[in-house]
Write a structure and sequence with these properties.
This protein has one domain: Ribonuclease Z/Hydroxyacylglutathione hydrolase-like (Metallo-beta-lactamase, Chain A, 4-Layer Sandwich). It has nine helices and 14 strands. It has a six-stranded mixed sheet with strand order 1-2-3-4-5-6. Strands 7-8-9-10-13-14 form a six-stranded mixed sheet. Strands 11-12 form a two-stranded antiparallel ribbon. Bound molecules: zinc ion and fe (iii) ion.
Length: about 240
């Protein structure tokens, strides 16, 4: 399986997964760049992480028999042409590999991630050095979703929904100005910055570090959900 990031809109990423003549696309914001990337291949499935237009805007314009998304989004009928609703822990096969679904409410109440062969497609739940805004969920909800992602194997590759890494790292350094790993990450940052790894996020992403003394000190809070809520609040205004 090959993974090709496809830049869409201003700073979105869709991901084209290919194996031979077949393709799957994750979070197509737009149909046209997706069609160009797909080329002569056969599109067998569209995977949506959540219902926001910048993640599903291209679905209607693509010819595909299957559109996957979370069960909550299917109930709400808010992903166009969705054919199947995936619950937490759902698994299915793609090209002989097991795909696992994680329900990760917080950014929205229907958000899911797809995990395949050590690759995490996480939409707007986790960004490199950051996380999504709390549009529908609470800080506690998002923190427990991120706690599950944080516990994935450290080498897991992160393919997220937006290129926000430079600004996220700049915000992170305001909280941990003394962190050498953060400084190094900032210095070596490339564009595109994807994929990241869980290990790197654990060391530098403030939204993975609510229990780190440095972060607790920076936001003057210790209770995990309070730390998390304050981090999110500060980032919204950064
Ligand atoms: Zn979103
Ligand atoms: Fe988005």
């Amino acid at each position: 399986m090959q993974i090709h990031p496809i830049p869409m809109l201003t700073d979105n990423y869709a991901y084209l997964l290919t194996e031979g003549e077949e393709a799957v696309i994750v979070d197509p914001s737009e149909a046209e760049p997706a069609r160009i990337a797909i080329g002569e291949r056969r599109l067998i499935s569209i995977w949506c992480t959540h219902h926001h237009p910048d993640h599903v805007g291209g679905v209607e314009g693509l010819d595909c028999p299957e559109v996957l998304g979370g069960s909550y989004d299917l109930e709400k009928k808010r992903i166009p042409r969705q054919t199947r609703g995936l619950a937490d822990g759902a698994t299915f096969m793609l090209w002989g590999k097991r795909v696992e679904v994680l329900f990760v409410p917080g950014h929205t109440l229907g958000a899911i991630c797809y995990l395949i062969d050590g690759n995490l497609f996480c939409g707007d739940t986790l960004f490199l050095a950051g996380c999504g805004r709390l549009f529908e969920g609470t800080a506690a909800m998002m923190r427990s979703s991120l706690a599950r992602l944080r516990a994935l194997p450290p080498t897991t590759k992160i393919w997220c929904g937006h290129e926000y890494t430079a600004k996220n790292l700049a915000f992170a350094t305001t909280l941990e100005p003394e962190s050498p790993v953060l400084r190094k990450r900032q210095r070596l940052l490339k564009n595109p910055s994807i994929p990241g790894t869980i290990a790197e996020e654990c060391a530098t992403n403030p939204f993975f570090r609510w229990d780190a003394p440095e972060i607790q000190k920076a936001v003057s809070r210790t209770e995990p959900d309070a730390v998390f809520a304050e981090l999110r609040r500060q980032r919204n205004h950064y």
